[in-house]
């Protein structure tokens, strides 16, 4: 346990817990007569008599009675400074999921949504405001936009920004990134900070832990002051503390990667859902992963999936690639079948003349697709 000199403690802000009577009784009786000692600077040379007097005030014994619980006081002050008031705008599936973690970590959560989530918010320990004016008058440190992708712009434009503190931090968690970044830059006055993020997990995949799950962020516009930078770090710390893998990346880069990974995943999940797959008594591990994929993607709203498609300019190309890949695969299968049939029909006489067509892979992601008239299947004889 560390012990502190009353001189040092008295130079800090008076903690609320320390009543004046407690201070009078616990501090050395002559303490308040020597107000000059309160401003001792460690760097300034002190006259000898002053240094001697200072030593008189030092608490040397480790377990000496302290004027108040100074360590607890320091700890509280530190943790207060690392706590944020976060306004979650869009308190649906994902907004509530995030709010739980914020509250668990001791942050204050305000919520606002189109629907009434008073009871849900209360049960989680958040305060719900149906009227956005009331929400903004709480002067949150962070406005966290958690609405559907397709409603984000209208929701943002409906917020009474003039009621917020001038340096409020705006964060979004939309599953596409260039779109909200551009809307934020268009709509928000320059005195607001902007952080675009995408937690690469949801209420299903992050149900048990966020350990090692990627969290993508782009500090789009953060003012120069230390306090603004600290606030962003405090917000990011929430995800670090949960064990997320923090990935700083531009919104454009995110959208390129996400179309080729997340959009494909959701599309495959939705295709499989249409097949109405069912568990069997002889499921393979691979089949289990397909069933899990359906479960993971089907619980997300169609608005979310539609947003991934409409608001990521790379998504359309991915649909075309899927189409081409499926066609090419069918051609390869039918090519094999065709060859087997011909062998049966014509026997060895054809050997060496016809060779099985080979499936060409599609060009890698990011490379332009073949023009529609060209063949994805190349006959090596041609
Ligand atoms: P969502 O369907 O994408 O969004 C639902 C939220 O949008 C609800 O809060 C809903 O409000 C609000 N909303 C929808 N239409 C609205 C409108 N016309 N006006 C006002 N508000 C409207 O589902 P979600 O899963 O909760 O996702 C929320 C955001 O998080 C999305 O941007 C999504 O891309 C992102 N995200 C989701 C996941 C995930 O796994 N679910 C992961 C990462 C990021 P009410 O509930 O009040 O109607």
From TrEMBL:
**UniProt entry keywords in alphabetical sequence:** Oxidoreductase
Residue ranges occupied by any Prephenate/arogenate dehydrogenase domain in the UniProt entry: 84-361
Concerning InterPro entries, the annotation shows:
6-PGluconate_DH-like_C_sf, NAD(P)-bd_dom_sf, PDH_N, Prephen_DH, TYRAAT1/2, TYRAAT2_C
Origin: domain of life: Eukaryota
Which Gene3D superfamilies does the entry link to?
NAD(P)-binding Rossmann-like Domain (3.40.50.720)
Molecular function via GO: arogenate dehydrogenase (NADP+) activity; NAD+ binding; prephenate dehydrogenase (NAD+) activity; prephenate dehydrogenase (NADP+) activity
Q: Which SUPFAM superfamilies match?
A: 6-phosphogluconate dehydrogenase C-terminal domain-like, NAD(P)-binding Rossmann-fold domains
Residue spans with biased composition (Low complexity)? 1-28
- The segment annotated Disordered runs over 1-49, 362-382
Keyword Oxidoreductase carried by entry: yes
Q: What Pfam family does this protein match (any one)?
A: PDH_N
What biological-process GO terms show up in the record?
tyrosine biosynthetic process
Q: Does the keyword Magnesium apply?
A: no
UniProt name for this protein: Prephenate dehydrogenase family protein
Q: Which organism is it from?
A: Perilla frutescens var. hirtella
């Amino acid at each position: 346990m560390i012990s502190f000199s009353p001189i040092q403690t008295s130079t800090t802000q008076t903690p609320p817990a320390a009543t004046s009577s407690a201070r009078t009784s616990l501090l050395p009786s002559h303490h308040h007569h020597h107000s000059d000692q309160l401003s001792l600077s460690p760097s300034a040379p002190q006259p000898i008599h002053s240094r001697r007097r200072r030593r008189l005030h030092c608490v040397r014994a480790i377990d000496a009675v302290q004027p108040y619980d100074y360590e607890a006081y320091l700890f509280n002050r530190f943790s207060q400074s690392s706590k944020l008031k976060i306004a979650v705008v869009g308190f649906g599936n994902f907004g509530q999921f995030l709010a739980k973690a914020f509250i668990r970590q001791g942050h204050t959560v305000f919520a606002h949504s189109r629907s009434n989530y008073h009871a849900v918010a209360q049960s989680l320990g958040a305060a719900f405001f149906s009227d956005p004016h009331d929400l903004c008058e709480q002067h949150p440190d962070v406005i966290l936009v958690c609405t559907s992708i397709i409603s984000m712009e209208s929701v943002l434009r409906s917020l009474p920004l003039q009621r917020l503190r001038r340096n409020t931090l705006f964060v979004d968690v939309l599953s596409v990134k260039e779109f909200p970044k551009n809307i934020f830059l268009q709509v928000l006055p320059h005195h607001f900070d902007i952080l675009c993020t995408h937690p690469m997990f949801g209420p299903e995949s992050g149900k048990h832990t966020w350990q090692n799950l990627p969290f993508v962020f782009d500090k789009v516009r953060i003012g120069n002051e230390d306090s603004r930078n600290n606030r962003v770090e405090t917000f990011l710390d929430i995800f670090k503390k949960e064990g997320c893998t923090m990935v700083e990346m531009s919104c454009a880069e995110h959208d390129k990667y996400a179309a080729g990974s997340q959009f494909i995943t959701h599309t495959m999940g939705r295709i499989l859902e249409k097949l109405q797959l069912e568990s069997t008594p002889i499921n393979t591990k691979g089949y289990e992963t397909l069933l899990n994929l359906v479960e993971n993607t089907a619980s997300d709203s169609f608005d979310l999936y539609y947003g991934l498609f409409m608001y990521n300019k790379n998504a359309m190309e991915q649909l075309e690639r899927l189409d081409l890949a499926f066609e090419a695969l069918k051609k390869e299968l039918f090519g094999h079948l065709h060859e087997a049939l011909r062998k049966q029909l014509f026997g060895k006489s054809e050997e060496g003349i016809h060779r099985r067509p080979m499936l060409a892979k599609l060009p890698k992601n990011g490379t332009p697709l073949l023009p529609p008239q060209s063949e994805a299947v190349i006959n090596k004889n041609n």
